[in-house]
Amino acid sequence: MSSQLPAVVVPAFIPSPSQGVWHLGPLPLRAYAICILIGIFAGYWLGRKRWVARGGTPEVLADIIMWAVPFGLVGARIYHVITDNELYFGEGKHPIDALKIWHGGLGIWGAVGFGLLGAWIACRRHKVPFLAVADVMAPGVALAQVVGRFGNYFNQELFGKPTTHFWGLKIDSGHRPEGYADFATFHPTFLYEAIWNLGVVALVILVDKRFKLGHGRAFALYVAGYTAGRAWVENLRIDTVNHFLGLRLNVWTALILFVLSVAYLVITSRTKPGQESVVTAPATPEGDEPVEAAEGEKAADGGEDEAADNDVPAAASDDGDKAKVGAVPADESATSSSAASATSSSAAAEPEPPAVPAEPADESPRPPVKDNPSTPDADRD
Fold first, then answer.
1. pTM score, two decimals?
2. Where along the chain is a 1,2-diacyl-sn-glycero-3-phospho-(1'-sn-glycerol) bound (predicted)?
3. Distance CA 64, CA 264 (A)
4. Which residues contribute to the annotated binding site?
């Protein structure tokens, strides 16, 4: 008895989404924007866990993110429009299209640069170390890029050269660039970069856990790791961009940032080892002293005064005569506390003998001495 196994159809390519926009009534839901928002929340989630582990408060980081994200989005669009200005300005172009961010076109370099500027402003407001915030958020930024790259997948953009491999990405004819109309499948560079960035996330977390990266080194490691992969992926892409000395502009940017980040890692690992603290405490008002120090100083300064007070004889006469041997009078001790404090160390080294109170003078009238005929004249004198 023979049996037939059902045939399993394995596609020879990765299909592209049939649509990237859904309408909820008059409101369009764009996959590109959704991917970016999910990436932001994923990056914040990871950064928040690392920030709390370092001793920071989540409220502070949330406010920093509220500054960094708008700055990053604006910067990403500005960088794209500047470096690809021929897409929006010139004959037959519509400059208003530069504002249509939902059509794609966000430069990661501008996003990171302007995002750091917004974070720096917020860090100054909260008086927390900016480089520590950059370190804890470094793998979160890479994670946000992982999710955000799928927005390019839904838009069918930023793909690579044609390929016949089974992981090739099928692109609809309306999205194929000029000169590639006869090719159906292309390198899925969005997927390459997403997988690479997952590796960068793991790299930063593991190295930071092992070596306790601080003073911006975790962020520098993220930059070095990301730019190394971006330079390779960028060379596979076929979208129209500006070139400089035979290389795509983004390749030059990646190479320069890679060199700078590696140099920063090497230099700061020697000049600023370890991690900075992110725990902030309210500053002590100027002029205030700890209670323990004040009490200790009081005891040191007032030691002799208390001794002097204790040395006052109880048999002092009613007329206020308080003379005694080896004791400091109370009225002098009240006006010479600084002198007592200056001599306290020598007094401690060589203690004085305990003061012996002098017997009070007996000023009561004595009865007259009667002449004793048996007493010699010399004794009577």
1. 0.71
2. 149
3. 24
4. 149
